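B., you asked whether I could sanity-check this one before it goes into the benchmark set. Here's the sequence:
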Amino acid sequence: MANAVKKVMVSTGQKQDGQGKYWKQVGTMFKNDEGKYSIKLDVIPMPKMDNNGFPSVWLSLFDLDNNQPPQQPPQQNNQQQTQQAPQQYQQPPQSQYGGDDLPF
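And here's what the prediction gave me:
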């Protein structure tokens, strides 16, 4: 039987005051009866480009206790987000091939 031993977390950004990061749990690390470890991801984090231009995902492990890091940055007021949404969907311009008729 496997027992959960760590939380698998990914950083979601820096705090505005520069004093740490926000974290999101993306999975759990388990240890089985034979002493082997495995990780179950509940979500697949989106990669970010590293300094060399390659996509990368950095995961961190945290203890399973109540002293967990902050999960998400405070959300903006939903009314502001709604006001910024486009007012009307616009159809893309028609191609020279008349819509769905593609030449292949």
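One thing to flag: The chain has one domain: 3-64+73-83. Otherwise nothing jumped out at me.
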